[in-house]
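Continuing the series of single-chain predictions for the mutant panel. This is the parent chain; the variants come on the following pages.
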Amino acid sequence: MKWHQPTSADQQAYPPRQIFKAGLRHHHLANTAYPINHNWTMKDYRVSRADYKTVTARAWQDIAEMGLYVHIPFCQARCNFCEYTVIDPAENERWEDIYFDLLLQEFEQYSQSLTIRKKTLIGFDIGGGTPALAKVENIARVVEAARTYFQWQPGMEISLETTPLIAIRQPEKIAALYRLGIERISMGVQITQLSLAQRLGRQYKGFDSLLEAVRNIRAAGFKKFNIDLMYGFAGQSVADWRDSLAKSLELEPDYITLYQMRYKGTRLQSQAAQVSKETIATMYHAAWKLLNQAGYQAPPGKNTFSRLPGDVGTSNYLTNRVIKGTPYLGLGLGAQSYSHQTLAYNQGAAAKQIAPYQKALAAGQLPLQDLYHLPRVVSMAKMIAVSFYFGEINRTYFEQKFGVTLEAQYPVAIDFVLSEGLMEYRGDCLSLTPQGVSYYNGVIALFYAPAVQQHLLERPVGFGKWKPAQTQQAQPRDVGPGLKIAA
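Parent structure:
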Protein backbone atom coordinates (compact mmCIF):
# COMPACT_ATOMS: atom_id res chain seq x y z
CA MET A 1 0.00 0.00 0.00
CA LYS A 2 1.35 3.42 -0.92
CA TRP A 3 1.62 6.37 1.43
CA HIS A 4 -1.07 9.04 1.23
CA GLN A 5 0.14 12.28 -0.32
CA PRO A 6 0.68 14.89 2.43
CA THR A 7 -1.52 17.98 2.40
CA SER A 8 -0.01 21.45 2.12
CA ALA A 9 -0.32 21.74 5.91
CA ASP A 10 2.02 18.76 6.29
CA GLN A 11 4.57 20.24 3.90
CA GLN A 12 5.24 23.37 5.95
CA ALA A 13 8.48 23.99 7.82
CA TYR A 14 8.55 26.02 11.02
CA PRO A 15 11.56 27.41 12.90
CA PRO A 16 12.55 24.81 15.52
CA ARG A 17 12.70 27.29 18.40
CA GLN A 18 9.13 28.34 17.61
CA ILE A 19 7.90 24.74 17.75
CA PHE A 20 9.99 24.02 20.83
CA LYS A 21 8.36 26.93 22.69
CA ALA A 22 4.89 25.88 21.51
CA GLY A 23 5.49 22.38 22.92
CA LEU A 24 6.52 23.88 26.26
CA ARG A 25 3.55 26.23 26.24
CA HIS A 26 1.21 23.25 25.74
CA HIS A 27 3.16 20.88 28.00
CA HIS A 28 -0.01 19.07 29.09
CA LEU A 29 -0.72 18.21 25.44
CA ALA A 30 2.67 17.68 23.80
CA ASN A 31 3.51 14.13 24.83
CA THR A 32 3.45 10.53 23.59
CA ALA A 33 -0.35 10.58 23.04
CA TYR A 34 -0.14 11.35 19.33
CA PRO A 35 -1.70 12.78 17.19
CA ILE A 36 -3.19 15.82 18.90
CA ASN A 37 -6.79 16.70 17.95
CA HIS A 38 -6.84 14.21 15.07
CA ASN A 39 -10.32 15.33 14.00
CA TRP A 40 -8.72 18.56 12.77
CA THR A 41 -5.06 17.84 12.20
CA MET A 42 -5.68 14.66 10.18
CA LYS A 43 -9.13 15.29 8.72
CA ASP A 44 -7.89 15.30 5.12
CA TYR A 45 -6.60 11.73 5.54
CA ARG A 46 -9.90 10.31 6.79
CA VAL A 47 -11.15 7.26 4.90
CA SER A 48 -14.85 7.03 4.03
CA ARG A 49 -16.80 4.41 5.95
CA ALA A 50 -17.62 2.53 2.76
CA ASP A 51 -13.91 1.92 2.19
CA TYR A 52 -12.97 0.78 5.72
CA LYS A 53 -12.59 -2.91 4.90
CA THR A 54 -10.79 -2.39 1.60
CA VAL A 55 -8.27 0.10 2.94
CA THR A 56 -7.68 -1.90 6.12
CA ALA A 57 -7.06 -5.12 4.18
CA ARG A 58 -4.56 -3.39 1.87
CA ALA A 59 -2.75 -1.76 4.80
CA TRP A 60 -2.19 -5.04 6.65
CA GLN A 61 -1.67 -7.50 3.80
CA ASP A 62 2.15 -7.38 3.81
CA ILE A 63 2.59 -7.16 7.59
CA ALA A 64 3.91 -10.44 8.98
CA GLU A 65 4.61 -9.50 12.64
CA MET A 66 2.40 -7.37 14.85
CA GLY A 67 1.26 -6.57 18.36
CA LEU A 68 -2.21 -7.17 19.78
CA TYR A 69 -4.01 -5.01 22.33
CA VAL A 70 -7.40 -5.99 23.76
CA HIS A 71 -9.29 -3.31 25.69
CA ILE A 72 -11.52 -4.15 28.66
CA PRO A 73 -13.62 -1.04 29.53
CA PHE A 74 -14.66 -2.04 33.06
CA CYS A 75 -13.55 -0.51 36.37
CA GLN A 76 -14.82 -0.71 39.94
CA ALA A 77 -15.01 3.10 39.96
CA ARG A 78 -13.97 5.80 37.51
CA CYS A 79 -11.02 7.69 39.01
CA ASN A 80 -11.10 11.45 38.59
CA PHE A 81 -7.80 11.41 36.71
CA CYS A 82 -8.89 8.76 34.19
CA GLU A 83 -8.64 9.65 30.48
CA TYR A 84 -9.37 6.19 29.13
CA THR A 85 -12.39 4.49 27.59
CA VAL A 86 -14.29 3.14 30.59
CA ILE A 87 -18.06 2.66 30.76
CA ASP A 88 -20.24 3.59 33.74
CA PRO A 89 -19.25 1.08 36.48
CA ALA A 90 -22.95 0.60 37.29
CA GLU A 91 -23.29 -1.05 33.85
CA ASN A 92 -20.44 -3.55 34.28
CA GLU A 93 -22.49 -6.59 35.25
CA ARG A 94 -25.07 -5.99 32.53
CA TRP A 95 -22.48 -5.72 29.77
CA GLU A 96 -19.59 -8.01 30.69
CA ASP A 97 -20.57 -11.29 29.04
CA ILE A 98 -22.07 -9.48 26.05
CA TYR A 99 -18.88 -7.47 25.62
CA PHE A 100 -16.66 -10.54 25.51
CA ASP A 101 -19.01 -12.06 22.92
CA LEU A 102 -18.46 -8.90 20.88
CA LEU A 103 -14.69 -9.16 21.22
CA LEU A 104 -14.82 -12.67 19.74
CA GLN A 105 -16.92 -11.31 16.88
CA GLU A 106 -14.26 -8.68 16.26
CA PHE A 107 -11.55 -11.35 16.17
CA GLU A 108 -13.61 -13.13 13.51
CA GLN A 109 -14.14 -9.93 11.50
CA TYR A 110 -10.40 -9.36 11.30
CA SER A 111 -9.79 -13.00 10.51
CA GLN A 112 -11.96 -12.56 7.41
CA SER A 113 -10.57 -9.13 6.46
CA LEU A 114 -6.85 -9.49 7.23
CA THR A 115 -6.11 -13.22 7.12
CA ILE A 116 -4.64 -12.76 10.59
CA ARG A 117 -4.10 -16.51 10.99
CA LYS A 118 -0.93 -16.05 8.91
CA LYS A 119 0.40 -13.22 11.08
CA THR A 120 2.71 -13.64 14.07
CA LEU A 121 2.07 -11.92 17.39
CA ILE A 122 5.22 -10.54 19.00
CA GLY A 123 3.38 -8.82 21.87
CA PHE A 124 -0.03 -9.10 23.53
CA ASP A 125 -1.43 -6.70 26.15
CA ILE A 126 -4.81 -6.90 27.85
CA GLY A 127 -5.56 -3.43 29.19
CA GLY A 128 -8.33 -1.11 30.20
CA GLY A 129 -10.00 -0.10 32.33
CA THR A 130 -9.24 -2.93 34.69
CA PRO A 131 -9.12 -6.26 32.82
CA ALA A 132 -8.60 -8.23 36.05
CA LEU A 133 -12.09 -7.10 37.09
CA ALA A 134 -13.60 -9.43 34.47
CA LYS A 135 -14.34 -13.09 35.11
CA VAL A 136 -11.39 -15.39 34.58
CA GLU A 137 -13.40 -17.43 32.09
CA ASN A 138 -13.93 -14.33 29.97
CA ILE A 139 -10.23 -13.46 29.98
CA ALA A 140 -9.57 -17.10 29.06
CA ARG A 141 -11.86 -16.70 26.03
CA VAL A 142 -9.76 -13.79 24.79
CA VAL A 143 -6.46 -15.62 25.32
CA GLU A 144 -7.79 -18.69 23.52
CA ALA A 145 -9.05 -16.55 20.63
CA ALA A 146 -5.62 -14.96 20.25
CA ARG A 147 -4.04 -18.44 20.17
CA THR A 148 -6.59 -19.59 17.60
CA TYR A 149 -6.47 -16.64 15.24
CA PHE A 150 -2.73 -15.80 15.28
CA GLN A 151 0.65 -17.45 15.16
CA TRP A 152 2.66 -16.75 18.33
CA GLN A 153 6.32 -15.87 18.49
CA PRO A 154 8.03 -18.39 20.80
CA GLY A 155 8.48 -16.93 24.28
CA MET A 156 6.03 -14.06 23.76
CA GLU A 157 4.48 -12.86 27.01
CA ILE A 158 0.97 -11.69 27.76
CA SER A 159 0.68 -8.67 30.05
CA LEU A 160 -2.43 -7.72 32.05
CA GLU A 161 -3.44 -4.94 34.45
CA THR A 162 -4.99 -5.19 37.90
CA THR A 163 -5.75 -3.01 40.91
CA PRO A 164 -4.60 -3.47 44.52
CA LEU A 165 -8.20 -4.09 45.62
CA ILE A 166 -8.64 -7.06 43.28
CA ALA A 167 -5.26 -8.51 44.25
CA ILE A 168 -6.24 -8.23 47.94
CA ARG A 169 -9.79 -9.54 47.75
CA GLN A 170 -9.43 -12.16 45.00
CA PRO A 171 -6.06 -13.91 45.28
CA GLU A 172 -7.53 -17.00 43.67
CA LYS A 173 -8.36 -14.94 40.56
CA ILE A 174 -4.79 -13.61 40.36
CA ALA A 175 -3.49 -17.19 40.56
CA ALA A 176 -5.95 -18.32 37.87
CA LEU A 177 -4.80 -15.54 35.54
CA TYR A 178 -1.22 -16.72 35.94
CA ARG A 179 -2.29 -20.27 35.09
CA LEU A 180 -3.81 -18.94 31.85
CA GLY A 181 -0.28 -18.12 30.71
CA ILE A 182 -0.24 -14.44 31.66
CA GLU A 183 3.34 -13.89 32.85
CA ARG A 184 3.52 -10.12 33.39
CA ILE A 185 1.12 -8.21 35.63
CA SER A 186 0.88 -4.48 36.26
CA MET A 187 -0.78 -3.00 39.34
CA GLY A 188 -2.02 0.59 39.36
CA VAL A 189 -0.84 2.06 42.66
CA GLN A 190 -0.64 5.63 41.28
CA ILE A 191 -0.10 7.38 44.65
CA THR A 192 0.35 6.39 48.29
CA GLN A 193 -0.74 9.69 49.84
CA LEU A 194 -4.09 8.66 51.35
CA SER A 195 -5.71 12.11 51.43
CA LEU A 196 -4.87 12.81 47.78
CA ALA A 197 -5.90 9.29 46.75
CA GLN A 198 -9.34 9.84 48.26
CA ARG A 199 -9.74 13.18 46.47
CA LEU A 200 -8.88 11.47 43.20
CA GLY A 201 -11.49 8.75 43.69
CA ARG A 202 -8.98 5.94 44.33
CA GLN A 203 -10.16 2.95 46.37
CA TYR A 204 -6.97 2.97 48.40
CA LYS A 205 -7.02 1.59 51.93
CA GLY A 206 -3.47 2.31 53.06
CA PHE A 207 0.04 0.95 52.67
CA ASP A 208 -0.57 -2.33 54.52
CA SER A 209 -3.19 -3.21 51.91
CA LEU A 210 -0.60 -2.70 49.15
CA LEU A 211 1.75 -5.11 50.91
CA GLU A 212 -1.02 -7.70 51.04
CA ALA A 213 -1.75 -7.21 47.33
CA VAL A 214 1.90 -7.79 46.47
CA ARG A 215 2.07 -10.92 48.60
CA ASN A 216 -0.88 -12.37 46.70
CA ILE A 217 0.63 -11.48 43.31
CA ARG A 218 3.94 -13.11 44.21
CA ALA A 219 2.20 -16.16 45.68
CA ALA A 220 0.34 -16.59 42.39
CA GLY A 221 3.70 -17.07 40.67
CA PHE A 222 4.30 -13.73 38.94
CA LYS A 223 8.01 -13.01 38.46
CA LYS A 224 7.43 -9.99 36.23
CA PHE A 225 5.52 -7.49 38.34
CA ASN A 226 5.15 -3.78 37.55
CA ILE A 227 3.56 -0.99 39.55
CA ASP A 228 2.32 2.25 38.01
CA LEU A 229 2.83 5.58 39.74
CA MET A 230 1.47 9.00 38.73
CA TYR A 231 2.81 12.49 39.33
CA GLY A 232 1.97 16.05 38.39
CA PHE A 233 -1.32 16.35 40.30
CA ALA A 234 -2.54 19.67 41.60
CA GLY A 235 -1.98 19.57 45.36
CA GLN A 236 0.81 16.99 45.13
CA SER A 237 4.12 18.33 46.43
CA VAL A 238 7.55 17.07 45.48
CA ALA A 239 7.84 15.71 49.03
CA ASP A 240 4.54 13.82 48.58
CA TRP A 241 5.89 12.35 45.36
CA ARG A 242 9.14 11.24 46.97
CA ASP A 243 7.08 9.55 49.69
CA SER A 244 5.10 7.60 47.06
CA LEU A 245 8.35 6.52 45.44
CA ALA A 246 9.89 5.44 48.75
CA LYS A 247 6.83 3.40 49.72
CA SER A 248 6.72 1.80 46.27
CA LEU A 249 10.31 0.64 46.68
CA GLU A 250 9.23 -1.18 49.83
CA LEU A 251 6.88 -3.24 47.65
CA GLU A 252 9.92 -4.56 45.74
CA PRO A 253 8.33 -4.74 42.28
CA ASP A 254 10.44 -5.81 39.32
CA TYR A 255 9.51 -2.65 37.44
CA ILE A 256 8.18 0.81 38.29
CA THR A 257 6.47 2.85 35.57
CA LEU A 258 5.91 6.58 35.95
CA TYR A 259 3.04 8.42 34.29
CA GLN A 260 2.73 12.18 34.17
CA MET A 261 -0.83 13.34 34.79
CA ARG A 262 -2.17 14.51 31.38
CA TYR A 263 -5.48 16.16 32.42
CA LYS A 264 -7.08 16.27 28.95
CA GLY A 265 -10.42 14.46 28.93
CA THR A 266 -10.47 13.94 32.71
CA ARG A 267 -12.59 15.36 35.52
CA LEU A 268 -9.51 17.27 36.69
CA GLN A 269 -8.99 19.11 33.41
CA SER A 270 -9.59 22.52 35.01
CA GLN A 271 -6.69 21.94 37.43
CA ALA A 272 -4.01 21.66 34.74
CA ALA A 273 -2.93 25.29 35.03
CA GLN A 274 -2.03 24.72 38.70
CA VAL A 275 0.88 22.45 37.75
CA SER A 276 3.90 23.97 36.03
CA LYS A 277 6.28 22.21 33.67
CA GLU A 278 9.07 23.09 36.10
CA THR A 279 7.35 21.15 38.88
CA ILE A 280 6.82 18.19 36.58
CA ALA A 281 10.49 18.20 35.56
CA THR A 282 11.58 18.40 39.21
CA MET A 283 9.38 15.42 40.05
CA TYR A 284 10.76 13.30 37.21
CA HIS A 285 14.39 14.11 38.07
CA ALA A 286 13.74 13.30 41.73
CA ALA A 287 12.28 9.94 40.72
CA TRP A 288 15.09 9.15 38.30
CA LYS A 289 17.72 9.79 40.97
CA LEU A 290 15.94 7.86 43.72
CA LEU A 291 15.06 4.85 41.55
CA ASN A 292 18.52 4.55 40.01
CA GLN A 293 20.08 4.67 43.47
CA ALA A 294 17.74 1.84 44.50
CA GLY A 295 18.86 -0.32 41.58
CA TYR A 296 16.04 0.44 39.15
CA GLN A 297 17.68 1.39 35.86
CA ALA A 298 16.48 3.64 33.05
CA PRO A 299 18.19 6.20 30.81
CA PRO A 300 17.08 9.86 31.16
CA GLY A 301 13.53 10.34 29.90
CA LYS A 302 12.44 6.69 30.06
CA ASN A 303 9.31 6.16 32.13
CA THR A 304 9.76 2.46 33.04
CA PHE A 305 12.53 1.50 35.47
CA SER A 306 13.68 -2.11 35.75
CA ARG A 307 15.74 -3.90 38.39
CA LEU A 308 16.10 -7.04 36.24
CA PRO A 309 19.39 -7.05 34.26
CA GLY A 310 18.84 -7.03 30.51
CA ASP A 311 15.09 -6.47 30.87
CA VAL A 312 13.79 -3.05 29.72
CA GLY A 313 10.73 -3.49 31.94
CA THR A 314 7.90 -2.93 29.49
CA SER A 315 5.67 -5.62 28.00
CA ASN A 316 6.64 -7.31 24.73
CA TYR A 317 3.79 -5.40 23.08
CA LEU A 318 4.95 -1.96 24.19
CA THR A 319 8.67 -2.67 23.80
CA ASN A 320 8.24 -3.51 20.13
CA ARG A 321 6.03 -0.49 19.54
CA VAL A 322 8.53 1.86 21.19
CA ILE A 323 11.78 0.58 19.69
CA LYS A 324 10.73 -0.76 16.29
CA GLY A 325 7.47 1.03 15.49
CA THR A 326 5.82 -2.38 15.15
CA PRO A 327 2.24 -2.30 13.82
CA TYR A 328 -0.46 -3.23 16.33
CA LEU A 329 -4.10 -4.21 16.16
CA GLY A 330 -6.42 -2.89 18.87
CA LEU A 331 -9.62 -4.77 19.64
CA GLY A 332 -12.44 -3.58 21.85
CA LEU A 333 -14.16 -0.35 22.77
CA GLY A 334 -12.19 2.74 21.69
CA ALA A 335 -9.04 0.73 20.89
CA GLN A 336 -6.42 2.18 18.54
CA SER A 337 -4.78 0.30 15.66
CA TYR A 338 -1.70 1.31 13.67
CA SER A 339 -0.34 -0.29 10.53
CA HIS A 340 2.52 1.39 8.69
CA GLN A 341 0.11 3.45 6.56
CA THR A 342 -3.10 3.63 8.62
CA LEU A 343 -4.25 4.77 12.05
CA ALA A 344 -7.68 3.72 13.32
CA TYR A 345 -9.87 4.29 16.38
CA ASN A 346 -12.64 1.89 17.34
CA GLN A 347 -16.20 2.90 18.11
CA GLY A 348 -16.75 4.11 21.66
CA ALA A 349 -13.60 6.20 22.06
CA ALA A 350 -15.64 9.37 22.45
CA ALA A 351 -19.02 8.24 23.83
CA LYS A 352 -17.62 5.54 26.18
CA GLN A 353 -20.66 3.42 25.42
CA ILE A 354 -20.73 -0.12 24.07
CA ALA A 355 -23.86 0.22 21.91
CA PRO A 356 -22.19 1.78 18.80
CA TYR A 357 -19.45 -0.87 18.90
CA GLN A 358 -22.12 -3.57 19.21
CA LYS A 359 -24.16 -2.10 16.32
CA ALA A 360 -21.21 -2.11 13.92
CA LEU A 361 -20.34 -5.74 14.66
CA ALA A 362 -23.99 -6.80 14.34
CA ALA A 363 -23.96 -5.29 10.84
CA GLY A 364 -20.87 -7.31 9.91
CA GLN A 365 -18.65 -4.22 9.84
CA LEU A 366 -15.25 -3.49 11.32
CA PRO A 367 -16.21 -1.46 14.44
CA LEU A 368 -14.17 1.60 13.44
CA GLN A 369 -15.05 5.13 14.46
CA ASP A 370 -12.26 6.78 12.42
CA LEU A 371 -9.73 5.43 9.92
CA TYR A 372 -6.89 7.52 8.48
CA HIS A 373 -4.68 6.72 5.48
CA LEU A 374 -1.37 8.27 6.51
CA PRO A 375 1.33 10.10 4.60
CA ARG A 376 4.82 9.05 5.53
CA VAL A 377 5.52 12.24 7.55
CA VAL A 378 2.55 11.52 9.84
CA SER A 379 3.50 7.88 10.34
CA MET A 380 7.03 8.99 11.19
CA ALA A 381 5.71 11.39 13.81
CA LYS A 382 3.55 8.63 15.32
CA MET A 383 6.50 6.26 15.63
CA ILE A 384 8.76 8.91 17.15
CA ALA A 385 6.13 10.12 19.64
CA VAL A 386 5.81 6.57 21.00
CA SER A 387 9.62 6.23 21.02
CA PHE A 388 9.73 8.94 23.68
CA TYR A 389 8.36 6.43 26.21
CA PHE A 390 12.02 5.39 26.32
CA GLY A 391 13.39 8.92 25.89
CA GLU A 392 15.15 8.04 22.64
CA ILE A 393 14.69 7.25 18.94
CA ASN A 394 16.25 4.12 17.50
CA ARG A 395 17.85 5.28 14.27
CA THR A 396 18.27 1.82 12.71
CA TYR A 397 14.62 0.83 13.09
CA PHE A 398 13.48 4.25 11.91
CA GLU A 399 15.47 3.85 8.69
CA GLN A 400 14.27 0.26 8.21
CA LYS A 401 10.65 1.34 8.57
CA PHE A 402 10.74 4.46 6.40
CA GLY A 403 13.69 4.03 4.04
CA VAL A 404 15.37 7.28 5.06
CA THR A 405 17.76 8.18 7.86
CA LEU A 406 16.54 10.15 10.85
CA GLU A 407 19.14 12.83 10.09
CA ALA A 408 18.03 13.20 6.47
CA GLN A 409 14.38 13.56 7.50
CA TYR A 410 14.87 15.96 10.44
CA PRO A 411 18.15 17.84 9.82
CA VAL A 412 17.04 21.17 11.32
CA ALA A 413 15.37 19.64 14.39
CA ILE A 414 18.36 17.41 15.10
CA ASP A 415 20.81 20.26 14.72
CA PHE A 416 18.70 22.23 17.22
CA VAL A 417 18.51 19.49 19.88
CA LEU A 418 22.21 18.68 19.58
CA SER A 419 23.39 22.30 19.68
CA GLU A 420 21.14 23.08 22.67
CA GLY A 421 22.25 20.00 24.61
CA LEU A 422 18.75 18.52 24.62
CA MET A 423 19.64 15.21 22.95
CA GLU A 424 22.80 13.26 22.23
CA TYR A 425 23.87 10.12 20.40
CA ARG A 426 24.10 7.05 22.63
CA GLY A 427 24.84 3.87 20.72
CA ASP A 428 22.31 3.55 17.91
CA CYS A 429 19.86 6.04 19.42
CA LEU A 430 19.27 9.77 19.50
CA SER A 431 18.56 10.15 23.23
CA LEU A 432 17.39 12.80 25.65
CA THR A 433 20.01 14.34 27.92
CA PRO A 434 19.16 15.18 31.54
CA GLN A 435 18.61 18.78 30.39
CA GLY A 436 16.43 17.55 27.55
CA VAL A 437 14.20 15.73 30.04
CA SER A 438 13.40 19.08 31.65
CA TYR A 439 12.22 20.35 28.25
CA TYR A 440 10.73 17.07 27.07
CA ASN A 441 7.47 18.54 25.74
CA GLY A 442 9.30 21.04 23.57
CA VAL A 443 11.66 18.39 22.23
CA ILE A 444 8.95 15.91 21.26
CA ALA A 445 7.02 18.64 19.40
CA LEU A 446 10.01 19.12 17.07
CA PHE A 447 9.27 15.71 15.54
CA TYR A 448 5.50 16.14 15.15
CA ALA A 449 4.02 16.39 11.67
CA PRO A 450 3.72 20.02 10.49
CA ALA A 451 -0.10 20.11 10.74
CA VAL A 452 0.10 19.17 14.43
CA GLN A 453 2.87 21.72 14.94
CA GLN A 454 0.62 24.35 13.38
CA HIS A 455 -2.12 23.30 15.79
CA LEU A 456 0.21 23.87 18.75
CA LEU A 457 1.20 27.26 17.38
CA GLU A 458 -2.38 28.44 16.85
CA ARG A 459 -4.31 27.13 19.83
CA PRO A 460 -4.60 29.09 23.07
CA VAL A 461 -3.28 27.49 26.25
CA GLY A 462 -5.80 25.17 27.85
CA PHE A 463 -8.22 22.42 26.82
CA GLY A 464 -11.16 24.43 25.52
CA LYS A 465 -12.81 23.45 22.26
CA TRP A 466 -10.60 24.52 19.40
CA LYS A 467 -10.98 25.05 15.70
CA PRO A 468 -8.80 26.99 13.27
CA ALA A 469 -9.22 30.74 13.36
CA GLN A 470 -8.97 30.82 9.56
CA THR A 471 -9.20 28.33 6.74
CA GLN A 472 -5.97 29.28 5.01
CA GLN A 473 -2.68 27.86 6.16
CA ALA A 474 -0.94 29.60 9.01
CA GLN A 475 2.39 30.96 7.84
CA PRO A 476 5.64 30.42 9.72
CA ARG A 477 6.42 33.38 11.96
CA ASP A 478 9.81 34.81 12.76
CA VAL A 479 10.24 34.64 16.53
CA GLY A 480 13.71 36.16 16.53
CA PRO A 481 16.88 34.57 17.84
CA GLY A 482 15.50 33.87 21.31
CA LEU A 483 17.59 33.03 24.37
CA LYS A 484 19.65 29.97 25.02
CA ILE A 485 17.57 27.43 26.89
CA ALA A 486 19.62 27.58 30.04
CA ALA A 487 19.27 31.36 30.26
